[in-house]
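Action item from last meeting closed. Structure (265 res):
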């Protein structure tokens, strides 16, 4: 988090996932600290959504709120991320210069959409999200929506891939105001083929199960989720840039996404 992003005021968002709650205090942010401490999680999420700052700073606001409101959950996320990093989760996913493996997945209207169909219209942003319930994913999608006109001006296409049943994917698309498709990757089949699907572990299953009914959302009880990776793919089908981080609290910043899309044209 950078020095003086004023009232990045711990604007927090939707739900558990910890992060560094190191927030650099300015005079303004210090004055607002008491108000931040009184914020509910949803109020914090909304504040993060409204914050005028780079995506990862907005995401960090959510993470800080999670840690403030549910330290047990935040600590468990830290342990999950540590395990995934030690296992080098995501390291074997397709890399820059590789051909992006094809897919044919149903969109939020039930229509099958293939990678080739998308690339026929222009270079693509293919991004994996964990689910409609994930505040980090909602904010990530909102960040892309905020840039969707600029993306369109570059001829770029966007497709969100998530392991949820169609009604949940459709609801998330509507909630964030997206004009691009949300594709359903049932049972994480495509994510698994890219070495992006991970088991969250018994501890996270127990903690998340209190609030989230993943078996209902996904149509299976595996408790597998994709690493929320983003791939920029040229019209030739080759990956020009990617962002793969097993810490779901971090995502490709929108400025980086736009710059990568310009390179892929």
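Sequence:
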């Amino acid at each position: 988090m950078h020095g003086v992003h004023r009232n990045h005021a711990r604007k927090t968002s939707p739900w558990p996932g910890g992060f560094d709650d190191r927030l650099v205090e300015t005079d303004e942010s210090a004055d607002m600290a008491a108000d931040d401490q009184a914020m509910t999680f949803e109020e914090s999420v909304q504040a993060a959504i409204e914050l005028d700052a780079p995506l990862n700073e907005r995401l960090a606001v959510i993470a800080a709120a999670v840690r403030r409101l549910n330290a047990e959950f935040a600590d468990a996320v830290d342990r999950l991320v540590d395990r995934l990093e030690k296992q080098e989760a995501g390291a074997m996913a397709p890399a820059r210069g590789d051909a992006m493996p094809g897919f044919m997945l149903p969109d939020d209207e039930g229509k099958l959409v293939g990678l080739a169909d998308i690339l026929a219209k222009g270079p693509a942003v293919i991004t994996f999200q964990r689910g409609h319930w994930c505040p980090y994913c909602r904010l990530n999608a909102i960040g892309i929506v905020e840039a969707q006109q600029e993306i369109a001006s570059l001829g770029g296409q966007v497709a969100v891939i998530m392991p949820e049943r169609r009604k949940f994917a459709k609801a998330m698309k509507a909630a964030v105001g997206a004009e691009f498709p949300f594709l359903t990757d049932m049972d994480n089949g495509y994510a698994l083929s890219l070495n992006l699907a991970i088991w969250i572990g018994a501890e996270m299953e127990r903690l998340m199960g209190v609030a989230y009914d993943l078996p209902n959302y996904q149509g299976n009880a595996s408790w597998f989720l994709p690493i929320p990776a983003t791939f920029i793919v040229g019209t030739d089908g080759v990956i020009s840039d990617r962002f793969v981080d097993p810490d779901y609290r971090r995502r490709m910043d929108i400025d980086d996404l736009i710059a990568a899309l310009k390179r892929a044209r």
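Note appended to the action item: The chain has a mean pLDDT of 89.
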